[in-house]
Amino acid sequence: MNSNAINSILNEIECLSENDKDYLLEIIYKQLIEYKRESILHRAKEAEINYNAGCVKKGSADDLLESFNNC
C-alpha cells in the first residue's frame, strides 16, 4: 500500500466519532487475528505435508545444532 492511500485512510478516520473509531479498531483487530489464524493453519498443513513426505529431520536440539555445524 502506498503512503498516499494510508494518509487518505487516516484522514477519513480522523473524521469518525470516538465510538466509530473504537468499532473500527475492533474490526481491524479481529481481521488481524483471523489472518494470523489462517497463516498458522497454512504453516501447519505445510508441516504435515513435509512430515508425511519424510522431509523432516528428527532428533534433539543438540542433533539439530550439530547438523548446522556440519554444513
Could you give a quick summary of the protein structure above?
The protein has 71 residues and is mainly alpha-helical. 79% of the residues lie in helices and 0% in strands. It is built from three helices and no strands.
SSE diagram, text form:
Layout: H1 3-14, H2 18-52, H3 61-69
Q: Alpha-carbon distance between the termini?
A: 40 Å
Morphology: elongated
Find the count of extended strands (DSSP E, 2+ residues): 0
Could you tell me the radius of gyration in angstroms? 22 Å
Unreliable residue runs: none
Q: What portion of residues is helical?
A: over 70%
- Tally of alpha and pi helices: 3
**Roughly what fraction of the amino acids lie in strands?**
under 5%
- Biggest sheet: strands, sense, closure? none
Q: Name the structural class.
A: mainly alpha
SSE string: HHH
- In round numbers, the mean pLDDT is 93
Model description:
Helices cover 79% and strands 0% of the residues. The protein contains three helices and no strands. The chain has helices at 3-14, 18-52, 61-69.
List its traits.
single chain; 71 residues; mainly alpha; 79% helix
